[in-house]
Write a structure and sequence with these properties.
By secondary structure, the chain is of the alpha/beta class. The chain has helices at residues 5-8, 28-36, 77-81, 101-110, 126-139, 155-164, 181-188, 202-210, 223-231, 242-249; strands spanning 13-16, 41-48, 54-56, 114-119, 149-152, 170-174, 192-196, 214-218, 236-239. It has one domain (5-249): TIM Barrel (Alpha-Beta Barrel), CATH 3.20.20. It contains ten helices and nine strands. The protein is globular, with a radius of gyration of 17 Å. The relative contact order is 0.16. The structure holds SN-glycerol-3-phosphate and calcium ion. Calcium ion binds next to strand 2.
Length: 250
C-alpha cells in the first residue's frame, strides 16, 4: 500500500540532528530545542558502541563532538556516557551526554516529534548496526504510533530495514542522484530519496517525483533556497534551525 506524504513528512521542515544550529547536534538538548521551536519532525543518526548499544551520534570518531578520542565503535556505552558532548558547542551545554537511542525515542515521543532515523553504521558493522538499531526502535513502537522514517546512505543497511521492518517507510540518502537510482529504489522498496543540496535542480526533483517517489533535501538553511526547493516540488527540507525556517516560511 502506498504511504501518503503526510505520513512521511508531517511538515516540510525537518530538524537536522535536532536543532543543531542552536544546541549540540544529536543530544537531547537539541531535540528539545527543535520541539520548542515548533518542529514536527527531527532527523538523527544512529550507530553502535563497542558493546552493541544503539546510540545517537553522527561521526565515526569521537573527537569533533565530544572530549573523547578514537573510533566510536571501540568505546563502551558506559565509557561514552562519561564524555562531554556539549562543551565543544558552547560552555552552556557542558555536560550534555551522547544519548542512547532509547532516550532519543522517549524524548521524541514525549514531545510528539515524528522521526527520521538515519542508519549511520561504523565501518564493517553495517548489517549488525541496522539489525540492533531497528530491534531497539521496534521495542518502543506500537502499531498505533506513526512509523519512523528509516534512511541511510548504506544500501546494505536499507536492505536490512526492508527485510526486518517492511512496514516502516524508507528513504535512500544520496549526495547527488546516482545513475542507478530507479533500480535501487525498486530493490530497496524506498518511498523517498533524500538528496543533498548540491546544485540540485528543479528538473532533478521533477524526475524523481514523476517516478512516484517523495523528495527531501539536506541541508538547507537559507530560507530563500527553501522556498525555491519547495516550489520546485520538494516535499521537505532538513534544516539546522527548523524554527527560523518555519518562521521565514510564515
Ligand atoms: O539525513 C540527511 C543528512 O543528515 C545526511 O547527511 O552527514 O548530515 O548525516 P549527514
Ligand atoms: Ca544525518
Amino acid at each position: 500500500m502506498p504511504i501518503g506524504l503526510a505520513t512521511l513528512y508531517p511538515s516540510p521542515v525537518i530538524g537536522h540532528r535536532g536543532a543543531c544550529a542552536l544546541a549540540p547536534e544529536n543530544t537531547l538538548a537539541s531535540f528539545r530545542q527543535a520541539a520548542r521551536d515548533g518542529a514536527a519532525m527531527v532527523e538523527f543518526d544512529a550507530k553502535l558502541t563497542a558493546d552493541n548499544r544503539a546510540i545517537v551520534f553522527h561521526d565515526d570518531d569521537l573527537e569533533r563532538t565530544t572530549d573523547g578520542t578514537g573510533p566510536v565503535q571501540d568505546i563502551t556505552f558506559e565509557a561514552l556516557s562519561g564524555l562531554d558532548a556539549g562543551g565543544w558547542f558552547s560552555p552552556a551545554f557542558q555536560g550534555a551526554q551522547v544519548p542512547s537511542l532509547e532516550e532519543v525515542l522517549d524524548c521524541a515521543q514525549d514531545h510528539d516529534l515524528a522521526i527520521n532515523l538515519e542508519l549511520k553504521p561504523c565501518p564493517n558493522r553495517v548489517e549488525e548496526t541496522a539489525r540492533v538499531v531497528l530491534a531497539t526502535a521496534a521495542l518502543q513502537w506500537s502499531a498505533d504510533d506513526r512509523p519512523p522514517l528509516i534512511s541511510s546512505f548504506s544500501r546494505a543497511a536499507l536492505a536490512v530495514a526492508r527485510d526486518l521492518a517492511p512496514s516502516w517507510p524508507r528513504a535512500l540518502l544520496c549526495d547527488n542522484l546516482p545513475d542507478d537510482w530507479r533500480e535501487q529504489a525498486a530493490i530497496l522498496r524506498v518511498q523517498a530519496l533524500h538528496l543533498g543540496d548540491v546544485e540540485l535542480s528543479p528538473a532533478t526533483i521533477a524526475q524523481v517525483k514523476n517516478h512516484g517517489l517523495a523528495v527531501a533535501v539536506w541541508t538547507v538553511n537559507d530560507p530563500e533556497r527553501v522556498r525555491f526547493l519547495l516550489a520546485a516540488g520538494a516535499d521537505a527540507v532538513f534544516s539546522d534551525d527548523p524554527g527560523a525556517i518555519r518562521k521565514a516560511l510564515g
